[in-house]
Fold:
Amino acid sequence: MTVKEALELALRLSGLSRVPADSGVLVPGELEEKVLFAIDVGVAELLLAKGLGAGGVIAHHPPGGQPRLHWHRVLWRHAELLTAYGVPEGEARAAAGELVQEFAARDHTANYDHVPGAARALGLPLVGIHTPLDELGRKRLVAAVGALSPKATLGELLERLSSLPELGNAATEVELRLGSPDRRAGRVAVLHGAGTNGGYPVAACAFRHGIDTVLYIHCSQAAAQRLAEEFPDKNLVVTGHIASDSLGINPFLAELESRGLEVIPLDVVKP
Ligand SMILES: [Fe+2]
Ligand SMILES: [Fe+2]
Structure:
């Protein structure tokens, strides 16, 4: 399997119709029989792959090139998710636009060829697969939340989420950053698979349009604090970054293995 074929496989599994801006082949080539997978890939992980005899490397977070520079473009998916939860399109796009602006400035500073340059020097095929795997994870979160009664409390929601093997096995907990366990979860919006969490603007937009509980995989304390001050009756659940990234990664790694590839996963929570 080539790195391009691995990316195409992830795309098919996710149901996305084209390669998102935060994903792509950085160094083309054949994975051969062993591949190293890591959520975060730097030069150290490339050397590790070489030392362990892997034919290539698959990264989750964009390790360089156009996927790293264009990471912020997938934040527009927050507008699509909000719209699907009934938020008027203009307001959804305004909220996502705030994030895009902030992250575009961050991405512009990236040392985008550092890791791909090292991979080329080592002769190691390298691919970044971000949003397709998060989309797989998002669907698992949506299924878990959807199985809950409309009258469920936040405590029951947390329990249901923690029953997902990766979230249960992780060293992190599913946390309630806003709200209390005895409160009703109400209308829950799973906002994941859109580049990164939607911070204050996306959650605030959801809360203003009938969503009672926002689910992010991670969120800064500054954003959670601001939401708590402005929306004391709303709720914010944070499922854990690496645990939740693993939700989408594991089904993909299982598919690679079923095709005869040996996968060395470095930082993934096992199901
Ligand atoms: Fe992710
Ligand atoms: Fe992540």
